[in-house]
Amino acid sequence: MERIRKSVSMRELALTGISAVLAVVCGGRICLLLRGQGSVYTMGIFPMALLFGLYCLWKGALFLENVFFPVFVRAFLAAGFAALQVMGLVFGHPGICGVWEAVLWILCFTPLTFAGQNMLFFLAKRTVGEDAAKVQSAGAAETVAGERIAGVLHRKGSFWGAFALIFGGFCIPFATYYPAIMAYDVIPQLDQIRASGLTTHHPLIHTLMLKGCLETGELLSFLPNADRAGLAMYALIQMAVVAACFAYVYCFLCRRGVSKWLCYAFVLCAAFFPTHGMLAVSITKDTIYAALTMVFTVFGYELAVGEEDPGKGWFVRYGILTVLLLLFRNNSVYAWIVYVAVVAFAGRRRPLFLKKICAFHGAVFLLYLCVNGLMVQAVSATSDTYAREMLSVPAQQIARAVQYHEEELTQEDRAALAAVWGENLPEYVPAIADRSKRDIPGDRETLRLFLKEWVSLGLRYPGDYLQAFLLKNKGMWDLTDVTYLNDVYSYAKGYLQITYPSDQQPYMEALAPGYVRHQKLQPLQSFYRYFAAADELWRYCPPVALVMQPAFTGYLLLFYCLCCIGLKKPMLLLPAVYLLALAGTLLLGPCVLTRYVYPLMLSTAALALLLFGRGTVGHRGCS
Length: 623
Prior knowledge:
Elements: H1 10-36, H2 45-58, H3 71-92, H4 99-145, H5 147-153, H6 159-176, H7 186-196, H8 204-219, H9 226-255, H10 260-272, H11 274-280, H12 285-305, H13 312-327, H14 332-346, H15 351-379, H16 392-404, H17 411-421, H18 434-437, H19 444-460, H20 462-472, H21 474-477, H22 483-486, H23 505-511, H24 522-532, H25 542-548, H26 550-566, H27 574-587, H28 594-612
Helix pairs in contact: 1-2, 1-4, 2-4, 3-4, 4-5, 6-9, 6-10, 6-11, 7-8, 8-9, 9-10, 9-12, 12-13, 12-27, 12-28, 13-15, 14-15, 14-27, 16-19, 16-20, 17-19, 26-27, 26-28, 27-28
């Protein structure tokens, strides 16, 4: 890669050298401290990031000016990122250093982060700039060469070819874990189907889908085991749905002019990267929702940069997809409402478009309410959306304040806590809110007392409230976090949480007597465990470890939004609005799990390919 700057002054050279030395000294100090604690900084991401920052310093990126934003804005972003990563180190290794040393580390790493950020912005601007030049060149050549150039720009990927390859790739984990991966989250759904009755706690459409497959398996009398047949049927249907979504996005990437090699890599990764295959055969509500979110994102992209009127067929497909999206995640409606509001705001200068798009989204929402209501009435499902499910953050904040300041609690505090939690004080586990909110009743009087005590303790201990929020969501902002791997559930450790408690094995067998995972492909099971267990080998391959971290997805989404702003392409922010709102619901949720972040992983990757993968970005609102 050629040098960005052809000449460097002595002042710039001195500042670059000082920045590099300070970063190396601090990095060495951190490594020695961690070695003294018997720990190694997680997954090699820190040394990899350090080397990238030093490379950017060597290329003169510290003094780049024409990279989207003024210096003070970029300095604020760099300092914020450095501060979050140092905080993650301190929180992950208590007692490793004092406050002032942590502040010194932030100051020393900020120039390095600033240079790396400048380099990324520079590369993004150059990449998208080259794309625009190619589009203009191709447009001029099209007037001469006609259909030949148009065919290159608007080539169509093979949907069925991509579908067959991806579905075939999913068949490997399907054969390995036949009939399906039974994660812990499926136990309450099986309990609803076989014992307690259907509720709306989990998405009802997913529970009914599982119920229908199990009942179909019972009708297939020629098969030796009805439960295994039903679970296998569910897994095959889910594999087909996810493979179809990946294939659709692949075709969309091809139509938008993304590099064919990136499109091929997208299909191969979908087919053979273990995470996708294992989640495709895992009976969890999050897999289908993640695939639908990815397709919804590219529909949003097409709405933002496509034609003024994409046609009735497009709207029908978009409407059906939206209804399914809302049905497969109970809280997705909040993110969707934010998305619709922003779409309406973006179209305010086009009255006809605004009227049409608002009417369409209103009709889609009514259709969702009707379908959901009909399902509830048809199966007599009871409402089971507990009020405490929305109390994750305040419950964690109260629990932390109580744990660290129990001796300072007043009699009024203790009376309020007893009214909400009973005899026991709320249990505080930093990475998960399930234990702190599990004993909270949902009646109005209890919630009123809860709110009053939350405000009272928050005014006294704002620092503990902030730490409780940050620690619960550590996986979303710390690139080296491991809490989502080890501390969330003691019985379901690992990247994908594909196991269930051993003490629930008898209950599991009572719910699905015929379910017994075969053990015939032990080598493949051992291979997949490296990607799903708590001691994954991929953690020691820094590039792979980085992209599999939930925090990486969050920062990639933020980088996409910043690039859209810097490139003055505001319409390209529209497909990211739903993802940002969805990330907000995750921040307010009980914990950070990979399967919760999986929709963001898939969708953000698709947006990154569309913006940086040598793709055309359309014309409307993007000039």
